[in-house]
Amino acid sequence: MVRNDEGDLVLIKYGGNAMLNDQLTEHLLKKVIQLSDKGFRIVLVHGGGPFIKENLERAGIDTEFVGGHRKTTPEAMKYIEMALKGEVNSRLIRLINKLGGKAVGLSGKDGKIAQAIKRYFVDETGKKTDIGQVGDVVEVDTSLIFTLLENGYLPVITSVAWSKEGIDYNVNADMFAGFLAGKLNASQFVLLTDVDGLMKNPDDEKSLIQSITLQKLDDLTGTTIKGGMIPKTEACKVALELGAKSAIITNGTKPELLTEVIEKKQYSFATKITL
Fold first, then answer.
1. DSSP string computed for 224-252
2. Contact, 273 vs 235, CB < 8 A?
3. d(CA 116, CA 122)
4. What is the pLDDT of residue 61?
5. Which fold is adopted by the domain 4-264?
6. Rounded to an integer, what distance in angstroms lies between the CA atom of residue 26 and that of residue 110?
7. How far apart are CA 246 and CA 212, in angstroms?
8. E strands along the chain, which residues?
């Protein structure tokens, strides 16, 4: 086995409905471990929207969305972190270890990995709305992540960040992952979603854009890039501008694509974005 500190650093962002399928999750994690065994230094970042929703409903906490952001009260934050760290992160660690990997579960608070500031929703008129404990990452300390990688561990990180004021922040998992990928100078930032990549026509799978530059990507915002694809492409932009070498959007419901894009660098069912 190649030592982990000799291979390319790849940050994989895992989330979406694929997380709800246990068999699919196990298949994908097997691929992650295989890549790690081949010498790739893998960092896995995850969110957990469906699990957060279920946890808040179980606790009887109503969810309010403002401009697409989940308004996060201090009470809601407790249950959000419980879902992300206590349920999703713990489950991924358990599965990776069971499958032969050596995982360490973290949030952005551990080792002060990700520092955030409060985020406000600003509408088109400039009106600013307080959406609670929702944050934007402003600083990343990569030292703990590199220490773990150098010692053969697979860091699994969820998108909760710390602040200088001592307030925990819930951060959009795509943006959290993009920020980390950039600061880690990842050779590949692989963002898993429920489709093969970015389509010229979202209703036509044959219109997949296999390769695009960041400048051309900006031109597609509001037309080709809509809805849930907006934060994903924004995350890719952040990653590339901060130091990642490439950003790839591909289908997390097809675990075999991880080998294709990461090891073989084939993008028949993916979108590769570069500067």
1. TB-TTHHHHHHHHHHHHHHT-S-EEEEET
2. no
3. 18
4. 96
5. Carbamate kinase (3.40.1160)
6. 26
7. 11
8. 9-14, 41-46, 65-66, 69-70, 103-107, 114-122, 128-140, 154-158, 160-161, 169-170, 188-193, 211-213, 247-251, 270-274
Structure tokens at 90: 């713990």
The token pair at 50 is 């469906």
Token pair listed for 264: 């073989």
The Cα–Cα gap between 52 and 238 comes to: 25
Q: How far is it, in rounded angstroms, from Cα 19 to Cα 32?
A: 14
CB neighbour list of residue 19: distance below 8 Å, 6 or more residues apart: 25, 46, 48, 50, 51, 88
Could you tell me if 113 and 141 are in contact, meaning their C-beta atoms sit under 8 angstroms apart? Answer: yes
Q: 176 by DSSP, 3-state: which?
A: helix
Residues in the chain, overall count = 275
Q: What is the pLDDT of residues 188-222, one digit of tens each?
A: 999 999 999 999 987 888 899 999 999 999 889 87
Place of tokens 């909760």: 160
Among 272, 270, 246, smallest CA distance to 256 is for 270
Which residues in the chain show pLDDT less than 70? 1-7
Alpha carbon distance 140, 152 (integer Å) = 21
The amino acid at residue 192 is L
Q: Tokens 């995850």 — which residue? A: 46
Structure tokens at 255: 């675990």
